[in-house]
Design goal:
Shape: elongated
Radius of gyration: 34 Å
Number of strands: 14
Number of helices: 17
Helix content: 40-55%
Strand order of the largest sheet: 8-9-10-6-11-12
Distance between the termini: 63 Å
Largest sheet: 6 strands, mixed
Length: 533
């Protein structure tokens, strides 16, 4: 029996290693928060959610198959939880059966009989749930699953299993046949079906058995030992076959627990977001080959899970565009939006819902992140060397059709060098068929990308302060904005907004005049240090 709840035609490979970029994805996208919310303090659910989410699907059909199964479970959460608890209970009770430390055929047989009796009872309950709710499921995955339960676990199956288990308890003793080989040694031991149990007349009259009989004396230890050896030889094949059957059913329950566990984790996440009134949608996966991105109300799932209030969403239309560049004010939500895009792409390709009103994107072959790192004791070189080393690792693994998310990369050096590095890397990735989404404070880099021919395709977003009197921002389409370090410093020092930033294309040495006729450059390194202090 195969569940096939995550893939249409195969089981999930739980022993497969995750892609090398998984560690960076967890760190840069804040996935630990997502996994904690999905697990709800359950280590098994957390590990399951982590494995499935970090193994993205490669095609729209596979994504839709998983989405449809999840949609059914969200419509019938009680059925999902009932089956999940039943499967977990079966696995837990099997572990409590006393193990056969001696591994003798007799002990293996006894343990296998107990396990099969346990599993038969749980399979009956599973079939009963399937009979009650098979008609409620609309997804191909669950329709096939419940049909499989009804066909494989029919009444004839349970009757046959019950009959075999009753006989394998050997209440009337073990009947073994054998042949004599060379040197009068036994060979070809076969476990035979025992005859009918003697009636009361035979037991009272002590009728002699219809064969030659030898009774081992009570104190004959060697004879008793030889008799048990003969018994074990007869039981060996049957014990091995029954143990394999029990292991097969245990494997089915274990796989089913894993696959159901992923959907239980999705249900927990869905309930947490629904309790806050956050929008959720099943995204539209588009075929590989053409860059597509369109969303309404997209927000950072992990940020929403950390905060009590709802999160501001953003709208983007970047259909047919392989490059998205985001600039603008500090703390304006640029990095948050970049994480929301990465999370949405990852969740979509895991078959999950997405934190947005609507979301549609093409399926990507791989997802990479290159975010700025703060200096710490783990660094063995300078920040720029560390950034370039990580970029080299990405370049060695990236494939056409992948997407790379850059967050303030190559800012560890001066603007001229950082911009040139960013330009060349971005150009090489785009020419290789890799989608690039870039958050940058390097105005020279953003401006030069903005000057690319329109037919090459690019969307430029900038963080704009909302007209609500609060420090809230929303991304809007527009020309690249210079870094706002100088403007922020100006407002903090003089208590009033700086004059409008220079127009696009103005020399980088341009400055905003202060109230006394002085100037505060929004490119000055000293301004950066003062603002950060």
């Amino acid at each position: 029996m195969k569940a096939y709840l995550l893939y249409e035609d195969r089981d999930f490979d739980w022993n497969a290693e995750l892609n090398p970029e998984a560690a960076d994805l967890v760190r840069d996208l804040g996935l630990d928060i997502l996994f904690d919310a999905m697990a709800d303090a359950d280590a098994f659910l957390r590990d399951t959610a982590r494995h499935v989410t970090l193994a993205p699907l490669a095609g729209p059909d596979a994504i839709v198959y998983r989405q449809q199964v999840l949609h059914d479970w969200l419509r019938h959460p009680d059925v999902l939880l009932d089956i999940y608890r039943l499967v977990i209970q079966a696995i837990a009770e099997e572990r409590r059966i006393w193990p056969s430390f001696l591994r003798s055929p007799d002990s293996v047989m006894r343990r296998a009989v107990q396990a099969m009796e346990l599993f038969t009872g749980q399979l009956r309950k599973l079939r009963q749930i399937g009979d009650e709710h098979a008609g409620d499921m609309q997804s191909p995955g669950l329709a096939r699953f419940f049909t499989m339960l009804q066909s494989e676990l029919d009444d004839a199956y349970f009757a046959t299993v019950a009959d075999h288990l009753r006989r394998l308890q050997f209440k009337n003793g073990v009947l073994v046949s054998a042949e004599l080989g060379h040197g009068c040694k036994g060979m070809k031991y076969v476990l035979c079906r025992p005859g009918p149990k003697p009636g009361w007349r035979e037991r009272l009259t002590g009728g002699s058995p219809p064969a030659h009989t030898y009774r081992v004396p009570d104190r004959d230890e060697a004879g008793s030992h030889a008799l048990f050896e003969l018994r074990d030889r007869g039981l060996n094949l049957a014990a091995d076959a029954l143990a394999r059957s029990a292991d097969h059913i245990l494997s089915f329950f274990t796989t089913l627990a894993r696959e159901l566990g992923f959907y239980v984790a999705c249900l927990k996440l869905h309930q947490k977001l629904a309790a806050k009134g956050e929008p959720r949608c099943f995204p539209t996966p588009l075929p590989v080959g053409r860059s597509s991105l369109a969303c309404r109300g997209l927000y950072d799932t992990c940020l929403s899970l950390r905060r009590e209030q709802r999160v501001i969403g953003n709208d983007v239309d970047a259909d047919g565009v392989p490059l998205v560049v985001i600039t603008g004010a500090n703390e304006g939500g640029k990095s948050t939006f970049l994480r929301s895009l990465g999370l949405a792409q990852l969740m979509m390709q895991a078959g999950l819902f997405v934190s947005a009103d609507t979301f549609a994107a093409d399926v990507r072959t791989r997802l990479f992140t290159h975010h700025r790192r703060e200096e710490d004791a783990e660094m063995e070189s300078g920040k720029l060397d560390e950034e370039l080393a990580r970029m080299s690792d990405i370049a060695n693994r990236v494939t056409p059709g992948a997407v790379v998310l850059f967050n303030e990369s190559f800012a560890a050096t001066n603007e001229r060098e950082g911009s040139e590095i960013g330009r060349q890397i971005t150009r090489a990735l785009l020419e290789s068929g890799v989608k690039v989404i870039l958050v940058t404070h390097l105005y020279d880099l953003a401006h030069s990308l903005h000057e690319r021919p329109p037919e090459q395709g690019a969307v430029f977003l900038r963080a704009q302060r909302q007209a609500d009197g609060k420090r809230t921002f929303r991304l809007e389409v527009g020309e690249p904005l210079p870094t706002s370090f100088g403007e922020d410093l100006y407002q903090n020092v003089f208590g009033e907004p700086a004059r409008p930033s220079r127009p696009a294309g103005t020399s980088q040495e341009g400055a905003s005049p202060g109230p006394e006729g002085g100037a505060v450059s929004d490119r000055c390194p000293a301004s950066r240090r003062s603002a950060s202090s």
